[in-house]
Write a structure and sequence with these properties.
5-stranded parallel sheet, Rossmann fold, 9 strands, about 300 residues
């Protein structure tokens, strides 16, 4: 792997499969004991600009379980680019810690941290991408379906960091993906272009449609996300009106395959992008996804720190 994990573009298909195998090994009750102290006396800096449940707990618990110590640096502890420049923050942290993860508003901040830090940097979420979540998502698909290619993946929602990273992974791994999206809220053209270039090599297809039925028809995986992400709260009413027909409810879900997986990165706004009868159904694997953040991120950390 490269020094940092900033984007799905930082890994190859073989590296993704290697990370999945390592994550499953680390998750295995019989084998995970061998990794218990591999990070003894090592420290992770966890930089947070946004609040979090899964990201903080999965990284902090995971690093602790591997024998290391994680330091939480919240908005009151560190203000990227305000109290101190991002390059200076990176050059301080890399002298005191062994690895840095950051959950930021700006993708530029993540890239700057990586550029100026001598230790590995992990993108734990930015406005453009969420690669750690997508690693957990595809690990979950792999566990439930036994493969991660030659299926139909339907994403119902706005073009955002989730759809960007999911498209990149679909293109890389050979998954056919279609984004069901309201007009004017499509994924960024740059991410669509890169994803399609990857898909051309893997034999997959990446599409966008404004028709929710077409998007979900015969899907093996149905994925949704909140309609208004953090920082977009002022648009909540407008987005709710635009996306209501993309709500993943019981009726819409009947157009997917009977054994389709329902996925969501969480937190879910029940009654908006998804209804209880779908997220709580036998098809839902949302809490498997949440747990797999822990295992997938452990694998990423171990590879970046060359400890596996």
């Amino acid at each position: 792997m490269k020094k940092d994990f900033i984007s799905i573009q930082d890994v190859s298909k073989d590296e993704v499969l290697d990370l999945f195998n390592l994550a499953i090994e680390v998750k295995n009750e019989v084998k995970k004991g061998q990794y218990r102290n591999v990070l003894n006396q090592m420290t992770m800096a966890m930089v947070f600009e946004k609040p979090s449940l899964r990201t903080r707990v999965s990284f902090e618990a995971g690093f602790t379980q591997l024998g290391g110590h994680a330091i939480y640096l919240g908005p009151n502890d560190i203000s990227l680019g305000k109290r101190e420049s991002v390059p200076d923050i990176a050059r301080n942290l890399d002298r005191m810690t062994d690895i840095i993860m950051a959950r930021t508003f700006s993708h530029k901040s993540i890239k700057q941290l990586a550029k100026y830090s001598k230790v590995p940097v992990i993108n734990a979420l930015s406005d453009y991408e969420h690669p750690c979540q997508v690693m957990a998502d595809y690990l979950t698909i792999f566990e439930h379906k036994g493969k991660i290619d030659s299926m139909k993946f339907a994403f119902m929602g706005a073009g955002n960091n989730m759809s960007h990273s999911l498209m990149l992974m679909a293109g890389l791994m050979g998954m056919n993906m279609i984004v069901g999206c309201a007009e004017g809220y499509e994924p960024a053209e740059s991410y669509l272009t890169i994803s399609r270039e990857l898909a051309e090599k893997s034999g997959a297809k990446i599409d966008i449609t404004n028709d929710p039925i077409k998007a979900i028809k015969d899907a093996d995986i149905v994925y949704t996300d909140v309609w208004a992400s953090m920082g977009e709260e002022a648009e909540k009413g407008k987005r709710a009106k635009a996306f209501m027909k993309y709500q993943v409810n019981k009726e819409l879900f009947t157009h997917a395959k009977d054994d389709a997986l329902f996925m969501h990165c969480l937190p879910a706004h029940r009654g908006d992008e998804v209804t209880d009868d779908v997220i709580d159904s036998k098809n839902s694997v949302v809490f498997d996804e949440a747990e797999n953040r822990l295992h997938a991120q452990k694998a990423v950390i171990l590879r970046l720190m060359k400890k596996a």
